[in-house]
Structures are given as structure tokens and as C-alpha cells.
């Protein structure tokens, strides 16, 4: 069985999708924030799903996925996304 998924490797769309998925967090394309994650997305190693179609929005393998990097990629994603700073009120 196949399924369609709407996911992007475009840096700007990915940034927009992450911002939409984490509305109470600061999500910026900087080295200190989600920049390293966006680098992996832009290289199409991973993609981020469109939160308008997928709830919850997930990070999924891209066309250049490398199974031998799974542990590294999962750790990086978790480290970045679990430590996003909260927006100030």
C-alpha cells in the first residue's frame, strides 16, 4: 500500500512548516537554532512534512536518506527541536 505525503526539502518552506508546528517557540534559520536541521533538509537527507496535511507534522527521510546516519540525524533533530527557546510574551 502506498501513501502520499506532502513534505519539503526547500529551506524556506521547511522553516515555515517548523514555525507553524512550534508556534510558541523561537524558530530561526541560525546556527544556534534550526540552521543545522535546515542544512540536512536542504540537502534532501530529510524532509519536513507540511503541517496543513499531516498532524502531527514529522521529519521523514528524503531522497538522499542514508540509513547509516539515522542515529546521528535522530539525535540532532531531537536535540534541536526539544531545546527551542520559548517565545517571550
Write a structural description.
It is a single chain. With 89 residues, the protein is of the alpha+beta class. The chain contains three helices and three strands, in the order βααββα. The protein has a three-stranded antiparallel sheet with strand order 1-2-3. It starts with 6 loop residues before the first strand and ends in an 8-residue tail after the last helix. The model has no long low-confidence stretch (mean pLDDT 93).
Which helices and strands occur, and which strands form pairs?
Layout: E1 7-8, H1 11-21, H2 35-42, E2 46-49, E3 59-61, H3 70-81
Antiparallel strand pairs: 1-2, 2-3
**Classification by helices and strands:** alpha+beta
- Rg calculated over all Cα atoms: 13 Å
Shape category? globular
Q: Which strand-content bin applies to the residues?
A: 5-15%
Number of strands: 3
Distance between the termini: 46 Å
Give the spatial strand order of the biggest sheet.
Answer: 1-2-3
Tally of individual helices: 3
> Could you describe the largest sheet, including whether it forms a barrel?
3 strands, antiparallel
Helix percent band: 25-40%
Mean pLDDT: 93
SSE string: EHHEEH
- Residue stretches low in confidence (pLDDT < 50, at least 5 long) are none
Record keyword descriptors for this entry.
about 90 residues, alpha+beta, three-stranded antiparallel sheet
Give a short synopsis of this structure:
By secondary structure, the chain is of the alpha+beta class.
